[in-house]
Amino acid sequence: MLTALLIFTFFALVLGALLGYAGQAFRVEGDPLADKIDALLPQTQCGQCGYPGCRPYAEAIAEGRADINRCPPGGEATIKALADLLGVEPKPLDAEVGEEKPKRVAWIDEQVCIGCTLCIQACPVDAILGAPKLMHTVIVDECTGCELCVAPCPVDCIHMVPLKVELDQWRWPNPEQRREIAEGPGSVHAPSKPLEQHA
Amino acid sequence: MSERILHRFPGGLHPAQHKTESNGTPIRHARLEGTLVLPLKQHIGNPAQPVVAVGERVLRNQLLGRADGFVSAPVHAPTSGTIVAIEERPVAHPSGLSAPCIVLEPDGLDEAMQAFDPWPDYRAIAPILLRERVREAGVVGLGGAVFPSAVKLAGSPGTPIHTVVLNGAECEPYITCDDRLMRERAGEVLRGGQILMHVVGASTCLVGVEDNKPEAIAALRAAAGELDDPRIEIVAIPTVYPSGAEKQLIHVLTGERISRETRATERGFLGHNVATAAAVYRAVVLGEPLTRRIVTLTGSGMQHKGNWDVPLGMLACDLIAQAGGYTPDVARLILGGPMMGFALGSDEVPVTKAANCLLALAAPDAPVDPLPLPCIRCGRCAEACPVELQPQQLLWDAKAGDFERAEKQDSLFECIECGICAAVCPSHIPLVQYFRYAKTEIWQREREKDKAAQAKERFEARNARLEREKREREEMLAKKRAQLAAQKAEGEGAGSGSDEKQKAIQAALERAKARKAGQQAPAEDTPSASTVAEAKEHDKD
Description:
- The complex is a heterodimer.
- Chain A is mostly helical.
- Chain A contains 5 helices and 4 strands, in the order ααααβαβββ.
- In chain A, the strands form 2 sheets. Chain A has a two-stranded antiparallel ribbon with strand order 1-4. Chain A has a two-stranded antiparallel sheet with strand order 2-3.
- In chain A, β2 and β3 form a beta hairpin.
- In chain A, α2 crosses α3.
- By secondary structure, chain B is of the alpha/beta class.
- Helix content of chain B is 37%, strand content 16%.
- In chain B, the strands form 4 sheets. In chain B, strands 1-14-13-17-15-16 form a 6-stranded mixed beta sheet, sandwiched between helices. A 4-stranded antiparallel beta sheet of chain B has the order 2-8-7-4, with no helix packed on it.
- Chain B is elongated.
């Protein structure tokens, strides 16, 4: 009886020491959950969620301070991914933060721009190019569509325009949503307008 | 010649052929008509970069757009004329979107220039130069995939090519452009095969032709007899769709099964369409760039069916009008075959290097499909799938939006989009549409992920920069403050000693005196430099 007790005590101490050591030696810096959440967010840095950027929002979710449905640019897909990650039920986007819109990018009407640099200071990803009293322009490839530059512009020369779909980025429509496209095997959709008659 | 043992790939289909409708008449030369619209991207890879300006006169065979990067192809002028625009024009694409095109107004003179030196004795030319020629001539896979041929010719490092496979299977119903080409220009095809063998150092050339084209096989055999090249073997293969897919054809001919991750060249096979081989022949021996291709006009909605040798860039509507137009009950125009082609929203799109067939269907042949019924998991699609996928499983994944599972577990990207699954489905589910949708959706998500990573990086870089600037400003201020303090200490001299209190009292007295003097005689004289410095110091305090 005593031997057994001693053996178990011994093992408990050894394993406890090991665990304690491992906890110190392999400590993970930062918050791994916040990192994972941050990776799912669209990185628009728009602040529509009420936090100054995607990372602070991710940290707030990780700490349980914020809900997962406060990211309008990410929309339903992001909410679903967050719900999967956190093991909670997905819920609709919080109406108070805005609504999910198709992606748009900022466009500066260069005829109107006075070169005040206010938009440059507002852009969270340095996607606006320009200098004081010189015309500014948006680097389309870098623009996240956060709209933060629109409000500061004193002459209202910044417009949000829909992103042009390039041919090689075009996506096939979901057959679920477009039942009428179901034509013969392999073929796609009926002509959107009747063919011209050349006969 | 010993009989070659042929193999069978899994699945497959025997669709109604509809080949005799268009393969009975010789290839006709399309007359130039209307403006030519030449898309800068008629191939897989980067679009060509225009090298001509609007208003410039160009000759036939002249370079219009140069290849941009390794995986790219140039574009040449199919006739002489004037460049009237370089702009976005509608192109043949399932989206109906526009793409950058060079618009050429022919002058009717059809003046030609010699684009390259003809090399009739190509055997004396180094393979690397021949490959460069194929690239400069803009030759791409003419079976419909339009992959730049020179890239394929570069092969895979470390694996020598032992067999050139010329693909004359033409397994899709309706299409007969390769059939007519093999019948009429068999010599060009086989000489192209010889050039390809020379370039890659292969010892065998297999020409696979489905046995529903006996005339083409006979013509090729006759041409092979003339060439008297024992390395070339013409093989009649059973007519099973999709035997014209590259890996399926290699499987049928040699029994080698090549997985998706592996390219055929990595296993020592170089597959090219017969029309591509003919284009290689013309590029090398005649020095001609690729400016024309053979297009099948067929289907119940076409007045006259047949094959046409068409200058690239000619609008489909002009070509069809020249061929006799549509029947009154035409309902749909498809680019490509009924299995893998796609419906065109408009016929005002140019013929490109990819356009092998324009299939017009009359209303009775193009019914609107009944609404899909639920999947009953009968498994017919899985039995017929030539790459042994489980389409019914992939359908669930795509419907549920579980793209990760579709990609990782159910091998979505093995799918060659042959359309058999949709053709055999008793519930009329457009399976292949779901897979195309899922593929483009996955690519889109990858792009978005990359974009998010890029935005994050820029955001963090910006924050770091702002932080640094703030720190630098503070450091500068601190430095200035220290400098001023040092100056002041120096100015007060060593006389007053080191007593801090004494110093402070002295400074306060002086400040009071200065203020008094300023109040009494504001306009008397300008304050001395030291007073100003002190006043400043005072402000700061």
